[in-house]
Amino acid sequence: MDTLLWYAIAELLLSIHISFSNLLVLWVYIRSKHVRTVTNTYIFSLALTDFLAGALGIPLTVVSVMTRKPRTFYGCLFVHLILCILCTISTFHMLAIAIDKYVTICCRDRIFSSRRKRAIFLLTCSWILGLLVAILPLFNVFGFAETQSLFVKNGEMCYFTMVVDYRYLVYVIFFSTILAPTAIIVLLYSSIYSRIRTEEKQVKCLLRQSERERRMAGRRKLIRILLILVVSYGICWYPLYIINTIDYFWPQFSINSLTLWTVIMSHMSCALNPLIYAYGMPGFKKALRAFFNIQTDANTCANYSCYMRSTGNQKQRSISVRGMPYEHSLAAIRKISAPTPVMIDRHRSRRRQTVDHIDL
């Protein structure tokens, strides 16, 4: 089968997956008020960007690659830049999330008094910077006149490399929106991890064994998520732009046969984002279970009793605890387990002295 046909099939399947998975994240955020936290606001905006890439950018690009249309320079440039810019905005979102976490944990909100205002500012910057990157190919410094003449010489056939200059792909997209954000993200998350380790050592003597184990488990989960984030991002994006860099600086070593498959790998980043960011959050997990009508054991069975009713013979089964009716025994249990004022003050004091970084 022709390589272009395989490319089109793979891209369309990926487009369906990206659109559905990110649409699910958008639906959960809109319908469930309890997940509308500041952290999830970043995830919502990121999911919106990835959804547009899957529902609009990828299909338009596939149609253009298969038909070599539109036959106008600006139309061809617009079609190919849509997906490029949406993926760039997605990268800026991941950088914004890293900056927010760094400021929250390492700077203790000294930069912005309100975390929600900071989120609005960072997300606005992500979209504006992405749109500014979109207009750079229109300047001659990035070969605008050359690409126009090359497009006409090529019989007005729409090819990505005919309307977008390699200087733009290498210096702007790769160096400025791939390499630089990656370095900043790694630096910020390294600082976050170092800060968490320092604080854990300082408050270790103030915590019970069970609390220490819980926090250690949360820290291991954090490390795992951060490693998955950085590694998956590099695997998805670096092959394509390494090939573009080789094509620009060393055209004699060009490996164009791999370009289409590295393009598919770069688009997989939009499919992995909801898996890494959204579906890993407890609030999103619960809302997704509700969406698929999946009931957990906590919803079907209480900790101390189960109440069963048979509609066929109208028989009832009840549970008693040490000879006491269920209602009275449950009230007694609640009374015994109710926290005293001393316990509440002690808990508040411990919460002030320790900071939990699990929800990242």
From TrEMBL:
* GO cellular component assignments: plasma membrane
Pfam families linked:
7tm_1
Q: Which InterPro entries match?
A: GPCR_Rhodpsn, GPCR_Rhodpsn_7TM, NPY_rcpt
Any one GO molecular function term = neuropeptide Y receptor activity
Domain G-protein coupled receptors family 1 profile, by residue range, is 21-277
Q: At the top level of its lineage, which domain of life is listed?
A: Eukaryota
Cell location: Cell membrane
**What membrane topology is given?**
Multi-pass membrane protein
UniProt keywords, alphabetically: Cell membrane, G-protein coupled receptor, Glycoprotein, Membrane, Receptor, Transducer, Transmembrane, Transmembrane helix
- Does the keyword Cell membrane belong to this entry? yes
Can you tell me where the transmembrane regions are?
A: 6-30, 42-66, 72-99, 120-145, 168-189, 222-240, 260-279
Q: Which PANTHER family match?
A: ADENOSINE RECEPTOR, ISOFORM A, OLFACTORY RECEPTOR AND ADENOSINE RECEPTOR
UniProt similarity note? Belongs to the G-protein coupled receptor 1 family.
- The protein depicted here goes by the name G-protein coupled receptors family 1 profile domain-containing protein
Query: From which source organism is this entry?
Result: Caenorhabditis briggsae
The record lists the lineage as: Eukaryota, Metazoa, Ecdysozoa, Nematoda, Chromadorea
